[in-house]
TrEMBL record:
Pfam family, one: Ins_P5_2-kin
Free-text function comment from the UniProt entry: Phosphorylates Ins(1,3,4,5,6)P5 at position 2 to form Ins(1,2,3,4,5,6)P6 (InsP6 or phytate).
Cellular compartment(s): Cytoplasm; Nucleus
Entry's free-text remark on domains: The EXKPK motif is conserved in inositol-pentakisphosphate 2-kinases of both family 1 and 2.
Enzyme nomenclature, EC number: 2.7.1.158
Coiled-coil zones: none
Cited InterPro entries: Ins_P5_2-kin, IP5_2-K_N_lobe
Gene giving rise to this polypeptide: IPPK
Record-given protein name: Inositol-pentakisphosphate 2-kinase
Keyword Nucleus included in the entry's annotation: yes
Species of the source: Scleropages formosus
GO CC terms of this entry: cytoplasm; nucleus
Keyword annotations: ATP-binding, Cytoplasm, Kinase, Nucleotide-binding, Nucleus, Transferase
GO biological process: inositol phosphate biosynthetic process
A molecular function (GO) term: inositol-1,3,4,5,6-pentakisphosphate 2-kinase activity
């Protein structure tokens, strides 16, 4: 990147999350990830360039030295911290402002520090990694936490039955974050059972929220950003996807979307190069991965048994990393209090304990080799907190799946392992958003966990009482409708064209 030639017209708005705004280059397969701050955050506006650069370098180090060894060399792109002209950033910020979703405009892009993260554009992967000739089709999934807590510190029994995502849905709807409930359940996606995975992705398609996006040629064509009340149009999506399907096209829109889902399942279960991801293996009790009572799937389907994920597939690696959270926030919070107390007494220990990094090999060693027994030390507490933070990153990351029709891949780079997914497609997977979660977030996480659970319990109790009242007023007919649960058929919800 030639700094003196940086021109805002070469970049366009690509997307954003809670912490960063992403712009993509109009010609090269590159993106710039710029951090965002609350408008009134004077502290960040006062940061020096060196402090801001250090912050971004910390993100790169964390991705490269901590997350990459745990998740696998080939699917993590750590990027590079870059310094950019302030004038370019100001112009860029003005240019992208009108494209930003209103719901994200409570924060402003950092135009003060002159620092950003430069990464390959992973939504254009098919251009650079799969095939030069194949169309670029890319799916982004933010799978969230794929297991039920197995920690003895869990005090609310419901947490062992219903997963956090499913409970959180009720809280999000009540707060107005979303207008409709998602029927997606992460435990279905992480089950390794192809049927359950199929339904999980179908539910993502039907109600994507911020968990599912589709890009073609690097452009977002499907996914909910701002109009949170708008129902997604699956027919229109199917039409737009047609050119990306191999010859011998599925006859109907429904069949086409079904093939897409199967291709995604295949990519998620495909074997990555073995031996690159970190050890040791985390063993959680089987019931923590079995099923969630919040899932709309028929109990029979859930009981049929799930084989678990094959080793060396991307979901297995993510789940293993998520399961570093062995204590649950309820077990981690008292350890956080222990560390806080220690730091009040000996503030200079913050550096030695690597609370804010550096994220180097020593940090990874503390994560991987943290003892399982609490000896009362601050070192044990910090080790568990490090593990929890790494797990939090894995619970909030996104998977990008680039799909290309088979038979057109005569230009595949030989060094890259491309897996057959569903016959008809080849795929390549990567993981993004691997930032460190701040140590200070633990107090917030603790409160949020309690709010989500309390709200869910209240909601279930209220619904139960309403149901009982209704039954007293209008007794049900002989064939009880409760024998049937939602989501038993394979029908995708969409209108005929
Ligand atoms: O707490 P959660 O599960 O709601 O996750 C937050 C995400 O909300 P989600 O439920 O996925 O819509 C949230 O995503 P959105 O802003 O809702 O798109 C962020 O990813 C947030 O991470 P960070 O604090 O910005 O680093 C996430 O916060 P962390 O929990 O990862 O700190
Ligand atoms: N390297 C990349 N290539 C292509 N697209 C990217 C890349 N990095 C990020 N994006 C896109 O930009 C969006 C926002 O990026 P990212 O998830 O990193 O933001 P964030 O603010 O950290 O998110 P969160 O809300 O989860 O904290 C992603 O959902 C993805 O669509």
């Amino acid at each position: 990147m030639e700094l003196e030639k940086m021109d805002e017209n070469d970049w366009r708005y690509h997307g954003e999350g809670n912490r960063s705004l992403v712009v993509s280059h109009v010609q090269n397969s590159q993106v710039l990830r710029l951090l965002k701050y609350p408008m009134d955050d004077a502290e960040h506006a006062r940061q020096t360039t060196d402090q801001a650069f250090r912050h971004i370098q910390n993100i790169v180090d964390y991705s490269k030295n901590v997350m990459k060894p745990l998740l696998g060399e080939e699917c993590v792109h750590h990027g590079e911290a870059v310094k950019l002209p302030l004038d370019f950033l100001r112009q860029l910020s003005l240019k992208v402002q009108q494209e930003r979703p209103e719901s994200r405009c409570d924060k402003v892009m950092d135009t003060f520090s002159g620092c950003a993260l430069c990464l390959p554009n992973l939504t254009q992967l098919s251009a650079c990694r799969l095939s030069k000739r194949s169309p670029q089709l890319c799916i982004e999934i933010k799978p969230k936490c794929g297991f039920l807590p197995f920690s003895q510190h869990v005090t609310q029994e419901v947490k062992r039955r219903v997963c956090r995502f499913c409970m959180h849905q009720h809280f999000k709807l009540a707060n107005g974050k979303w207008k409709r409930m998602s029927r997606y359940c992460p435990l279905d996606l992480f089950s390794g059972n192809k049927q359950r995975m199929y339904f999980a992705i179908k539910h993502l398609l039907e109600e994507p929220q911020n968990n599912f996006k589709i890009f073609t040629s690097g452009e977002l064509i499907y996914g909910c950003e701002d109009d949170r009340a708008k129902q997604q149009d699956l027919c229109e999506l199917a039409q737009r996807l047609r050119p990306h399907f191999p010859s011998g096209q599925p006859p109907s829109n429904k069949a086409l979307l079904s093939e897409l889902i199967q291709a995604i399942v295949g990519a998620l279960l495909g074997t990555l190069e073995p031996g690159h991801a970190g050890e040791p293996q985390r063993r959680a009790p089987a019931e923590s991965r079995a099923y969630c009572q919040g899932s709309p799937l028929h109990p029979e389907l859930l009981r049929n048994g799930s084989p678990g994920l094959p080793k060396h597939c991307i979901l297995y690696r993510i789940l293993q990393t998520q399961m570093l959270d062995s204590l649950d926030i309820e077990g981690v919070y008292p350890l956080y209090r222990r560390v806080e107390q220690h730091l009040e007494e000996i503030p200079k220990d913050r550096g030695r304990l690597q609370i804010d990094g550096p994220y180097n090999e020593k940090f990874l060693e503390k994560v991987v080799n943290c003892p399982s027994e609490d000896d009362g030390s601050v070192e044990y507490a910090v080790g568990k907190i490090h593990q929890y933070r790494v797990a939090m990153t894995a619970k909030d990351c996104s998977v990008l799946i680039a799909l290309a029709p088979c038979g057109q891949d005569d230009t595949l780079e030989p060094s890259l392992e491309i897996q057959p997914s569903k016959p008809g497609f080849t795929s390549s997977v990567s993981i993004l958003d691997l930032d460190p979660k701040p140590y200070e977030n633990i107090a917030h996480q603790y409160k949020l966990d309690s709010k989500i659970v309390s709200y869910y319990l209240w909601k279930m109790q209220t619904e139960k009482e309403q149901h009982q009242q209704q039954q007293q007023q209008h007794p049900p007919p002989a064939l009880a409708s409760h024998l049937y649960r939602e989501g038993q058929d394979c029908t995708l919800v969409f209108q005929p064209v």
